[in-house]
Design goal:
single chain; nine-stranded mixed β-sheet; alpha/beta; globular; Spore Coat Polysaccharide Biosynthesis Protein SpsA, Chain A; 11 helices
Length: 283
């Protein structure tokens, strides 16, 4: 089973070598790895060049982009540029972040999932981050059947069916909703512990804080589901302001009549799926 990797990298000199070394240590090797040097101003390109000399699986793409870091759009724009360099001769396509260390058997197990489950569309492991005591701890505040955007693996059929990745906040929720709409399943493997070298939770400006709510509008959640999901998020993050930021973002998107990420039919399916999940958790 052939799999290709696309790794967007923006100023990742502190972590990229560890990530690429963990790719080289995989028991099941990728056929191609495109590392997208996305407007880096540090030593990221020099690290990529080192690995180009180590293995023919690596390919480099230098690209320019805005220095502004906005969740979703920047990384997916870089991913799509890398994707454009690849041919269609793959079974599994992977978007991988440049600050991760994978266990050596990561893609061996991921390919087993796709081989063993013909209807598998998306698969992945779980992120671990160091706590205050320098111990690696699970960081997965969402449902266990969600694959983090840091290491999404797609079957080719599923990736084609969902129309690729949306360059917008919420892309790593939209893909899973559309996968289910197209009758593909999502699989996670709790034994696959991925070390995340740079903790999540970086502060964004006020505009970025509203993007989650805007994403919920664009996914056609509707007001009530958005309010419930936002309240749940605020409780998990112990940050009440997250609820109000989300609702403000949703209402602003509604007022501006921003474009949706999904069709009306897909939106109906998404709302039905969300309500069904909520009812199962309650009862």
């Amino acid at each position: 089973m052939n799999y290709y990797l696309v790794i967007p990298a923006h100023n990742e000199e502190a972590f990229l070598a560890d990530t690429l070394n963990s790719v080289l240590r995989q028991i099941v090797q990728p056929k191609k790895v495109v590392v997208v040097n996305d407007n880096s101003t540090d030593g990221t390109e020099a690290i990529i060049d080192t690995f180009l000399a180590l293995s023919p699986i690596f390919e480099k793409l230098n690209t320019t982009s805005s220095p502004e870091h906005m969740p979703g759009s920047k990384v997916i724009n870089a991913f799509n540029k890398g994707l454009a360099l690849l041919d269609d001769h793959y079974d599994v396509l992977v978007k991988l972040d440049a600050d991760l260390v994978l266990p050596d058997n990561y893609f061996e197990k991921i390919t087993y999932i796709f081989k063993g489950h013909p209807n598998a569309g998306i698969a992945g492991g779980f992120i671990y981050e160091k706590d205050a005591k320098e111990q690696w701890k699970l960081n997965h505040p969402m449902d266990k059947n969600h694959v983090r955007g840091a290491f999404k693996a797609y079957s080719k059929a599923c990736f084609k069916a969902i129309g690729g990745l949306r360059n917008a906040m919420g892309w790593d929720t939209v893909d899973e909703l559309l996968a289910q709409y197209n009758e593909y399943e999502i699989f996670t493997d709790e034994t696959l512990e991925v070390k995340h070298l740079r903790p999540t939770g970086k502060a964004y400006d006020q505009k970025a804080k509203l993007l989650q709510g805007r994403a919920m509008y664009r996914m056609r959640y509707g007001m009530l589901i958005t309010a419930i999901a936002s309240a749940k998020m605020a409780l998990k993050q112990h940050r009440p302001k997250a609820f109000f930021d989300n609702m403000q973002g949703y209402l602003e998107a509604q007022k501006e009549e921003v474009s949706f990420l999904v069709t009306k039919e897909e939106g109906m399916f998404i709302r039905k799926l969300r309500w069904g999940n909520m009812k199962r958790k309650l009862f």
